Amino acid sequence: MPRTIPACLTVGLLAVALAACSSSEPTAETKPTPAGTTDSINARCHAQDWPQAMPKLEGKTFDAMSPDVVCFDRLKALAPDGHDVMADAANAAGDWVIVSSEPSPGASVRISTPITLKLRAPKAVR
After folding, report:
1. What is the pTM of this model?
2. Any residues with CB less than 8 A from the CB of 6 and at least 6 apart, and which?
């Protein structure tokens, strides 16, 4: 005789499965891409209309995961001494302020456009 699953258990399992699938948190199935972003972020970036206008970033705190820059896959963020803070684990997000960008704000850019941000250390709080 085949076993049947009670309806209340089926509905409960379905609710748990739907909640897990709709979560915006990364899961084990979300694999990091070479740029360090997750597939879901990568998919959202590629779903946007490109080219777009380069955002105005001057004066903002640099964070590689901010919505303004997360989609650019050829991003460099240069400290005053010329090193790329993206490749330096000692430089935490929020440690740098954007001074300028190349291309300049308003220029037409794609995901693959090389973007260079020049940074400065934030002013000391007195």
Report:
1. 0.65
2. none
Q: Which residues neighbour 25 within 8 Å (Cβ) at sequence distance 6 or greater?
A: none
pLDDT at 9: 37
Task: Give the integer Cα–Cα distance in Å for 27 and 1.
Answer: 38
Radius of gyration of the chain (CA): 21
pLDDT tens digits for range 19-41: 444 344 443 344 444 555 456 88
Which residues are CB-contacts of 124 (< 8 A; sequence separation ≥ 6)? none
Structure tokens at 36: 């360090």
